[in-house]
Amino acid sequence: MTDQFPSLLQQARTRIGMDERAAARIFGLSLCEYADLEAYPDEWFSVLPTQVIRCVVSCFGIDWRSCRTWNAGKVHVGPEPLNSFLVKIREAHALTREQFADRGSGDCDP
């Protein structure tokens, strides 16, 4: 389920002893943006740019494929690379590349 990602992210971050501020800085996010990533299940596939998610997954060694069912079964994780999978997510939500690339409001200060 998509709701697994925030807890996987938080566990991975705390496992290496990193605080949220340091993680936000590494990925070029404001503290609010990073906190949202750990708080909201859809944040990572509907708000942040793909390149940020690729960095997060790689840095923390998160097995994103372990989150099997997406949007009530519309999209299933396959053997494809993460960027191809995220394209499937974008298409399932009928979003353009621009809409998907960054749906954040930008209302938080860095």
Any overview of this molecule?
This protein has 110 residues and is mostly helical. The chain has a single domain (4-101), classed as Orthogonal Bundle (434 Repressor (Amino-terminal Domain)). Helices cover 54% and strands 4% of the residues. The protein contains seven helices and two strands. The protein has a two-stranded antiparallel ribbon. It is globular, with a radius of gyration of 13 Å. 17% of the residues are buried.
Structure characteristics:
single chain, 110 residues, mainly alpha, two-stranded antiparallel sheet, 7 helices, disordered C terminus
Task: Produce a short descriptive summary.
The chain is mainly alpha-helical and 110 residues long. It is built from 7 helices and 2 strands. Strands 1-2 form a two-stranded antiparallel ribbon.
Topology readout:
Layout: H1 4-15, H2 20-26, H3 31-39, H4 43-46, H5 50-60, E1 69-70, E2 75-76, H6 82-92, H7 97-101
Antiparallel strand pairs: 1-2
Helix pairs in contact: 2-3
- Portion of residues in helices? 40-55%
What's the main sheet like? 2 strands, antiparallel
Order of helices and strands: HHHHHEEHH
Q: How many structural domains does the protein architecture include?
A: 1
